[in-house]
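The protein record quoted for completeness.
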Amino acid sequence: MRIEFNIPDISQAGDFPDYWLKVMFIQSPSSRYQINALTSTYIRLVEAAVIEYRAGSTKLKEFWSTHNSINLGAMHRSVSHFEACLSNMYRATNCFRRLRRDREQDPLSLKLNIEKAVFAGDAVTAKFRLIRNEIHHLEEMVMDGRISSGQPFALKPDGPEIAHPTEIGQTIKTIDRLQIGEREVRFSELAGWLDEMLIFARRITDHLPNSKPSV
């Protein structure tokens, strides 16, 4: 079996230091503490999700590229990174949705509503929630002794396996998704949503002034 990967990298740059420097030394996003708390939590979680996604991809490829042993440590760390990535993405999405629904219509909230955010739509949010709940539910089953023999209890990087077009008896397996139970999400989806999250993180950073207002 030959292994190929369809794990897109994150194309957007994360300008996280720029945000934190502005907040620390120039001005907060809002005059309201709740908006500032939601905004900084969103930025922090998106940054963490991107780091976990990249680390998960690196460790997954390390597992499959190790040929002198079965590198289970790399696979376990990959799964843990992707679990953290999904959790952070779900929490960041909740912060973002709450920011956009601000009843007092904070200027930042109004700005974030100008563009459509696919990752914050009901369908994607539900997908995050269902996968996260599946992870937690199966963990509870493990703890309670209710797990059945052969039942999955962790995320599994997986994908389709097809016959090699020129080598008889050989197959090609493309790792392109994460599965747990009946739930799955493709890496291409995660990368696309993370890119979009980063675009809105940039919008938030651009909302902040570059210098202190004159008194």
Remarks:
- Helices lie at 16-25, 33-65, 72-100, 107-112, 122-144, 187-207.
- The mean pLDDT is 89.
- Residues 12-152+186-207 form one domain.
- The longest helix spans residues 33-65.
